[in-house]
Specification:
This protein is an alpha/beta fold. It has helices at 9-20, 25-36, 46-59, 73-84, 97-109, 125-138, 156-166, 179-185, 201-206; strands at residues 63-67, 89-94, 118-122, 146-149, 173-176, 211-219, 224-232. 43% of the residues lie in helices and 18% in strands. Helix 3 (46-59) packs parallel to helix 4 (73-84). The longest helix has 14 residues, at 46-59.
Length: 233
């Protein structure tokens, strides 16, 4: 089938979400409340949320680490999946205090216990991650089964590296969103001039003996993009 059929992405997404992802009060409130507080509407789509939820269920994850909370939309998807897995906890890192407050309100409205089922840690990712490692080594925090990276691109390789370090081990997943967009916008591939000093996450992950990984391109009503998913060996 020709790539020209991508023009029907919005129609297809509307059809599939109507039948497979009916709206819920919790997620609708999270979306609307986030928008009402002026937070950029750059969260994952319902289809992406469902996909991450299914991955979490398939992997049997009990502990999820998220970098980039925003309004907590994806955190709710993860928390709901963990409940279906028999319980667990989402630990999400957010640098903006206002975003953190909104995300906690959205989580509570969704019936997620804070901080028992979802904890939103305030701070820059590279400041918080070493503290999480200390807590893990001290026995006060569990290692993670699933890591979702959706934060600033300048530090994506470091976030990935930390994600692998904080995972339980073989079979754990590190998922990095918006990888295709970054490859194109930074000039690593495509017509744009390559940014000076830009780090090619895909190249580095490909040389990382700790993981096996793939990049999948996606087309949706939002945009053309894609993600990297790595499984710890």
């Amino acid at each position: 089938m020709s790539v020209s059929n991508a023009i029907y992405a919005a129609e297809l997404e509307s059809h599939t979400e109507k039948h497979l992802i009916p709206p819920t009060a919790a997620l609708t409130y999270a979306h609307d409340n986030t928008e009402a507080h002026g937070i950029p509407m750059i969260a994952i789509s319902p289809s992406q949320g469902k996909f991450l939820s299914l991955l979490t269920s398939m992997s049997g994850a009990r502990h999820v680490l998220e970098l980039g909370t925003l309004g907590g939309y994806s955190s709710i998807w993860f928390a709901q999946a963990l409940k279906r897995n028999g319980g667990g906890k989402v630990t999400s890192i957010e640098i903006d205090p206002a975003h953190r407050d909104v995300s906690i309100a959205n989580l509570l409205h969704a019936g997620v216990s804070v901080p028992q089922e979802a904890e939103v840690v305030l701070g820059a990712g590279l400041d918080v991650l070493p503290r999480l490692e200390e807590e893990i080594e001290a026995g006060s925090r569990e290692r993670f089964d699933f890591v979702f990276v959706d934060a600033d691109w300048e530090n994506q390789w470091q976030y990935f590296d930390w994600g692998v370090r904080l995972c339980k081990g073989r079979g754990s997943v590190v998922y990095v969103d918006n990888v295709v967009r970054h490859l194109l916008e930074s000039g690593i591939v495509g017509p744009e001039k390559r940014e000076e000093g830009v780090v090619d996450l895909v190249e580095r992950v490909g040389k990382d003996a700790r993981v096996d990984a793939v990049v999948l391109q996606t087309v949706s009503v939002k945009d053309y993009d894609g993600f990297l998913m790595a499984v710890v060996k």
